[in-house]
User: What shape does this take?
Amino acid sequence: MTETLTPPATGSPLALLFDIAATTAALGQDEERDLAETAAADHIYTAYPDTLGRAVDHEMWSGFPALRDNFVEPSAVAHLDRGLWLHHTITADADYRDALTLLVPCACGHGYVPSLLEDERDLLELLTELRATGGRAVHSNDNGGPYCGSIPAT
Assistant: This one.
């Protein structure tokens, strides 16, 4: 038999505990956002001092809390311009390393092509390629449409 759940009586200890849990969860998410923004800024200032460290300010990052149900760690994104985004997170595997991805709009307009950046050299090579296309990822094997291998834009 299924019972219908009713909320606890206002002012009851259970109602108070539910309120505390909700407040604590909200504060935890705010802290995760802040920590994600700080981690992203620290990473680019340290690992990309001559490029992103000069172009992306700490205030450009927007943090997002972890998605516990999907095992997604806190992350942060920064909009560069013309639809290009940086995404930063810390991997959840054994080494907890920084993962920085450049999300580039696809030339066909159907989505984004992610490029995991290992270091400043990777970034510079990718930027050299993107400069010729105005910041769009170009298909090498198709002309877009249903065969586009990009991540769909939502």
